[in-house]
Every structure is written in C-alpha cells, then in structure tokens.
Amino acid sequence: MAAIPVIETERLRLRAPVMADFDAYAAMWADQRVTAYIGGNPRTRNESWARFIGMHGLWALCGYGYWLFADRRTDALMGVGGLASFERGLPDIDGVPEAGWAMAPDAWGRGLATEAMAAVLDWSDTVLKAPIVRCIIDPGHTASEKVAAKLGFVLFGRGDLDGHPVNIHGRPGRLP
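and the corresponding structure tokens:
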C-alpha cells in the first residue's frame, strides 16, 4: 500500500484527507458551482463519502491518487486533486494516470489549482515517472482549460463520457 506523500507549495499543503476534513469536503461537493462541469449535479453526503474514502483507495491500489489541498497557514480545505484511474471507458485515457482537480469556490481565481497541480505533475515526473498523464475537461469549462494550458496540457482528442462530450488533453512529448 502506498502512503500518501505530503507535498508543500508556497501556499498549500497537499496531504491525505482525514476525518476532520469530511464536512468541508461534503459541503464543497454539494455546491452546484463546483459540480457544474464535473458531472453536473451536486453530490449527496453519501456520494461524497464514497469519493472521500476512495481517495485513500486510489493510493492503495494504484500507487498514486488524489490529495486534499489544504491552506498551509490554516489547514482549511481549498480543493482536491491529483492523479487517478477511474475506469471511465475512454480509450485515450485507459491505462494512464488521469490528472484532475476541483477547488472550493472560496479558492477560485487565486491560481491555487495551477500551483497544486504543478506540484502533482512534478511528483509524477520525478517520483512516479509516468510517461503519459492525460486529463479530461467538459467543453466550456474555461477555468479548467486555462489551468490545463498553464500546466502544459493541449487538446488532442474528444470523447463521450456517459452521454456527455469531453475534451481529452495530454502533455506534448507524451502524446501518442
């Protein structure tokens, strides 16, 4: 089982989620603004619980996974993200780590997603040594498209996820 490493950036601590984080996590995912481009529907507390404990499961099964993004000064939840294997059935992401991120609305517009995911990708490149990392973004999710571009991802394909179109991004030099 892989331990979830702690990574510190200028403003964030990427760490394992703990029980004390769950209420803030569930509140974040119950917010329609957060889920508008991630599934489209706010999550119930039960759905959030399954995803919350699944963050530990990713690490145990894959050797990589999602971190909780916490404010370094207050330890408050700012968002979540990392690398995943969600078995989405999209050929362009099957078998490769999928980068993903979501931020609490109070953290929007401050560059925190880019800061956190830059640290995740640095970890991926130096520790995991994943030759390919991809991400999917709903069409029209401008904020995530900007984060992806800043991280070096470019659009290279499109797919259908449960009847909804998604754009598939990869990092140049790592595309097929």
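(Above: one complete record from the training split.) The radius of gyration is 15 Å.
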